[in-house]
Specification:
It is elongated, with a radius of gyration of 31 Å. The protein has 4 domains: 205 residues, UDP-n-acetylglucosamine1-carboxyvinyl-transferase, Chain (Alpha-beta prism), CATH 3.65.10.10; 218 residues, Enolpyruvate transferase domain (UDP-n-acetylglucosamine1-carboxyvinyl-transferase, Chain); 130 residues, 3-Layer(aba) Sandwich (Rossmann fold); 88 residues, Rossmann fold, CATH 3.40.50.300. It has 651 residues and is α/β, with parallel strands linked by helices. The protein binds 2'-deoxycytidine-5'-monophosphate. Its main location: cytoplasm. It is an enzyme of class 2 (transferase). It comes from Thauera phenolivorans.
Amino acid sequence: MEFLDLPPMLGAAGSVRLPGSKSISNRVLLLAALAEGETDIRDLLASDDVERMLEALSALGIEWSGAEEANRYRVRGVGGPFPVKRAELFLGNAGTAFRPLTAALALSAGEYRLSGVPRMHERPIGDLVDALRQLGADISCLGNEGYPPLLVRPASLRAGGVVRVRGDVSSQFLTALLMALPLSGVETTVEVVGELISRPYIAITLELMARFGVRVEREDWSRFVVPGGVRYRSPGTVFVEGDASSASYFLAAGAIGGGPVRVEGVGVNSIQGDVRFAEALAQLGARVAMGDNWIEARAPAEGRLKAFDLDLNHIPDAAMTLAVAALFADGPCRLRNIASWRVKETDRIAAMATELRKVGAEVEEGADYLRVTPPPRLCPAAIDTYDDHRMAMCFSLVSLGGCRVRINDPKCVNKTFPGYFRAFAQVVRPVPVIAIDGPSASGKGTVAAEVAAALGWHHLDSGSLYRLVAHAATRAGIALGDEPRLAALAACLPARFEGGRILLDGEDVGDAIRSEACSAGASKVAVLPAVRAALFDRQRDYRAAPGLVAEGRDMGSVIFPDSALKIFLTASAEARAERRYKQLIEKGLAASMIDLLQDLRERDARDAARTVAPLQQLPDAVLLDTTSMGVAQAVAFVLDLARERGLEIRG
Ligand code: DC
């Protein structure tokens, strides 16, 4: 399973150009295909769902050309039903392609098979099929009744009249019907049965149909009259707005992580309902501003986001972002009227509840609501994404809680936003790490401690963890080559670091783990991959605001490869042996220069030769040779570099 590890973030600020709206892109493509004339589409979204629609249009005889890099496409419309009368379409998990194409094909007098990924075959389409059957369409469900895959066959259609369609499962059924009906050539009235959900999406449909020359008369949200004898006509050029649902992650990032974060591509004039996410965010106390083509969000002037209890039926997709924003609220939050989540890319209510619990929230899950109680502290977790792009994007926000988070299968964002994590990285500021790696007794411990003190940052002496494992193993009578038992010991090492003291089971072992025997033991246990793996997360948990100075052998290579500054601190073996010798003598301990030198050389060789995380100077590390340099000079060298790299220096 692929994953992406996001480090804890200090905050978020900046601006992002949004990819095109998925809802608008796929609607415009279909309308352009059915319209008379050629349509020039700008800023079309480049994503999996749009790919599926483009492939389907090709298979149905529509000529289009375009360049993904330029996000510019030309579609030559056919001015009526699809010309290809026999086709098999695979539509992935793209609801915005599957539903409207089903309706358009039912009115195209041909034989078509439509299928998708297994999840698509679990997503209901029966209400749309029922409505189309009322028109005389011949559609069979090839698997379970009411679900894809579907077979559409030519049929003699009824002329006009009234068609009834359910509106309370997915608004896409109504959208599909409305967009297809002009193909029938006769006036048809659509009556919505049940309360129409996700209304803003119907508004997008009507607005785009009007741009292509077909005006639907609407009475409330329950009756829609599609005129007869009309044809779609290309409006020439169509600009696709930025995706308002995709905007929600960045706006939430601004509200949680300080901000301001600005999204470009949607604004006050947007036809997408999800821009109203900004209003919801403002109700949580975030400071929100909007222009013609941008929206910006900042954290509340003081304190956390406010707890909320909101009906979110009008913004079902962006509402998921609020479920994660609830983790940052000052009390329990309730998301109401979100039953449609259950039939989306995954059962989003269940998925959201499960994953929110992983980071420590208390969650109550109802048929159509979620209640989220934020934890006092978020815990690191590996988030499953259920092949749902929005799960992946939502949970990236956890990193703004000063908490690392792993996103499993991050590529699922390709459905609507292939560049999401790059865009996210543009606006967030990771907790900075200075990695100081180098051989034993090079003085990196002292230098790291002083750099950390000067910056007011945390300090990780990773070598002491390996020393502690060796020490605890010796005490417990575990052989230093017994990998499974050593790894088990490392995984729950009862060690604490308190004000310069190192405690094992409450006992101060600071001096004991510095003994030569323990040093040699540490270097032996450090060779074992399972021991290193067991200490992996523990080391990464030291990364916390305002920053971390981490020293060891593999800080820059394995534990914090994204360190803002990597130093390779070394000194000649003779110089290191001499320093160690002085230390031991000062402590009144017996020492021999010859033994120390030999011992150091052996440890260097072992650390450098091991297959896992060997000691090495990375190409992106700065060499600091302290053979003839004092501690103060070495510290100044590191601090200068930190300043040059723009790291915030206290004092
Ligand atoms: O830095 P130190 O001398 O305290 O390290 C003790 C041993 O632990 C050393 O032999 C190498 C090993 N070590 C390691 O393998 N990886 C680290 N990140 C730190 C130390």
